[in-house]
Amino acid sequence: MVLRVGLAQINTTVGDFEGNTRKIC
Q: Can you tell me the distance from the alpha carbon of 21 to that of 19, in angstroms, rounded to the nearest whole number?
């Protein structure tokens, strides 16, 4: 459970980072 939650948070963070990068570009 903890690992799944951690991975979900990481995936969300990476997704937000990619989204922000696309907006900047």
A: 5
pLDDT (tens digit, 9 = 90+) per residue, 1-25? 677 888 888 888 888 888 888 887 7
pTM over cut 0.85: no
Cα distance between residue 6 and residue 25, in whole Å: 28
| DSSP label at residue 16 | H
* 1-25 burial code (b ≥16 CB/10 A, e <16): eeeeeeeeeeeeeeeeeeeeeeeee
